[in-house]
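Repro case for the chain-ordering regression, as requested:
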Amino acid sequence: MMNLEISIGDLQVRIFKLRLTNILVLMLFNSLFISAIFAQQKTRNPKSEIRNFLTCPIIRDSKTFPCWLVEYNGETYYLGQQGRSGSLFYPPQLKHQVLVEGRIKDGSRLCGGIVLEPVTISVMPELDLSCNTLLPAQDGLEPPPPIPYPENAPFADDTRNFTILFDFDSDFLSLHKTRIVGEVVRIAKVNGLKNIVIKTFRGTTLLSNGQKLIEKEEIAELRAGKLYDIFEGLGFAKEHIKLAIKTNPEKADGIIDVGKRRAEILIF
Amino acid sequence: MKIKTFVLHVIFLVGLLSWVSDNENSWIQPGKGGILPAEVAFSNPNGTLGYVNVDGDINMEGHPFFEPLGTNGRACVSCHQPKDAMSVSTQSLQQRWNETQGQDPIFAAIDGSNNPKLPQQLESSHSLLLKRGLFRISLPWPVKTDNGKTIKPEFSIEVVSDPTGVNVDPELGLENGNISVFRRPRSVANMTYVMSPDPVFNIKTGTLAVTDPETGKVVGMNMMADSRHYTQKQQALDAYFGHLQGHNTLTDVQLKQILDFQNKLFMAQSHDKWGGKLVENGEPAGLGPHNMKAGKVHILANNNRDPIFHWFNNWKNKETMPQSLNAEQKDFRESVARGNDIFMFREFWIRDATHINSLGLGNPVRRSCATCHNGQMTAQDLAPGWVDLGTTTYPTWTENHLANQKSDLPIFKCTCNKNAAPHPFLGRVIYTTDPGRALISGKCIDIGSIVMQQFRGLSARAPYFVNGSAKTLHELVDYYDRRFDIKYTEQEKTDLVNFLSVL
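-- result from build under test --
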């Protein structure tokens, strides 16, 4: 495992050694955080219910909202319905393959597909023109009513650790992710915290067919650079921003891989 | 004292009368002087366009918006004519060419011709301006900075063909670090709406929104076709040095006067040649310059609670219309009301539009025009509004084909680097007549993305789209119909055209 800590001054990247104390604090936090989040999921998610695969998305029209489906190993799965930019589920895109990382909810079907919930999808950036299936509406195949937007309650003012999860191979910060960034800055101001450590990771996904999908080599650096620019733009002094970029891919187990494509942020 | 007041009134009235008498041919020449009344209307092919200036009458004499401050005789008003919805129409340009035998400063070689090295006395040397209303915009390539940050472009550009010759000219072209694209000038009224900023984050890029370097405040990015400038001050200075070929600079006082004028000027169609006076007792609330002045800015309105142009309830039913209207006028109002409903609620598959379908809505998404044209009263995107609608990129561009050597616009081939994220729907090799936002950001994903414009004053400023490819509102609607395979009926198209014509 290789850990790099990088401090950027005048947009020049310089490598520093992280103070031992910070490393220990950060690593301890990371271990506890990841364990806490996923220990529960592991017990709920036997591997037979997990579906991780790369495929073309399918959109089905309906009397209400269009719904998004995928096919894998001869079975159809339901991902979610068309929403808005504030919705939690961001649908796939035709002309692109989609990486699906989900769990069979309870065997129930929507729009003709077995419901995956929770499900995370990542749009693969390269074009695949074979992904072009739009099915007509069919009676009885409708998605549920729109899911209410997330409440987006503010984080507690004593929060110090934050995690931002990314789509596969992406450093894009969607509306939901920039909200977390905004909360980091708000809480830092409320508490007069001037230091920030940003630790970014490169993920791997273990697909259900046994193959491993590894994120591109530079992705952790891209995520770090983007967050650095934002936090610097929002008032953190350059000398108070520490970057820890982990370029080696995370190990994959097919269960909690979604949670490893991440940035961890610590303010103090 | 009384005599002095009397004389001032006489001067004002003479100015006003001369304005009114000259209103039929209301092209405003730089440096001409005169008064631009606080409330004034100009005729256009569909009726009249009304203006309200919050600051009252504007004395154009000595006003930097109207004075030729550069070296080529142009002023801001040259390309932002009140008669033409503060843009300029091809109808006016052609008339101006005929009246001046091409000597008007608006035809200046620098950007009012296809190529400054062509014989300027020939009409054909100005064909893009005369036929499409396009000015030449020369930009540095490869771009080196964006918003003060060093960038390295993710794609290379080759010239596939260029009937103007400018992009293959050793001095003016790519070889010497310049790329020329041809674009329509944008309206500079209702600017409080246009300039209103979104929150701290740019939803299109997932990065921080840009800020005014002077104030540090977040600013909008919807003023220019490629968002290369996002403050009016930057734009005014760029226009002074570029379009006006100024050699000195604009003073702070002059800049303030220009910005004040733009920010306090509201416009909207006020009369229709069939429908008559468009606003009575403040209704419909989405029409007319006074409602523009009174409206709230930066309201997301792609909903059924308080839509983009509010409601046209009184126009939906002949029985609720004034008895004084004739049958044709009532028919017209009903058509406009239907057009508003089509714009707001008629769903279709919005597909392969970068920065819409690629932003979490999914591709395709079954929504309406108002999904993207979501800002109340202007129908601009409230977020930074660059979208690759396909007007400049193959295969959906409307008039240029690779084999068609008669194309009047230059065609570029953009090849994206292997390591860069490709254009979401066109891949890594893209043919375009205008790379748009990508010429500023250097990003492959932005190739062909153009910032959408406000919908106001459309009747006064044909042709439409950034490259003037739609000569009429009907052609504009036809483009969307083809592009998204909407299958509008002829009645729906007519209703949409009527609706757009009264904005």
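Ordering looks correct now. Chain A is about 20% helix and 35% strand.
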